Amino acid sequence: MQEPPRPGDVAPYVEDDRPATVGQLRSTRRWLAVAGVWAVAATALGVIALIQANKDDESGKTQSAADLARVQNNLSGRIDDLESRVDDLPTSDDVSKLDGRIKDLETKADRTASDVDKLNGRVDDLEQRVDDLESSSQTQTNTTTTP
Questions:
Q1: Collapsing DSSP states into helix, strand and coil, what is residue 125?
Q2: Domain ranges of the chain
Q3: What CA–CA distance (Å, rounded) separates 13 from 25?
Q4: Do residues 54 and 64 make contact, with C-beta atoms less than 8 angstroms apart?
Q5: Contact, 66 vs 73, CB < 8 A?
Q6: What is the reported pLDDT for 128?
Q7: How far apart are alpha carbons 50 and 43 in whole angstroms?
Q8: pTM
């Protein structure tokens, strides 16, 4: 029988207390992938067995043929819809033309910003000149009105 730990003793090392290593994680991932492949294979075998059982049943054959025709018609319609949607998509020429137009607009916007900056400077100059004129006008008015 094992003795209970004494105070101050270090707890015995348990292997499960260690964190998983990268190699262990990779190995686990591989086994999960293998299990997934087996699950897909088992599902495929089940579907094949179900289809085979339906083939054996004569009434199942007519039902399967009707279902197959319905699915084919549905898929044909969906494929036609997708083809029309793809045909409506822009071509690379359209995209390159649009890109050129965007670049032209960006250039014009940069020029406009530069022009606005120039106009702001001119407006500031005009405001300064008006302020100077007002102050000189007030100075002249004050000198002419004082006796």
A1: helix
A2: 26-56, 60-86, 90-139
A3: 22
A4: yes
A5: no
A6: 93
A7: 10
A8: 0.34
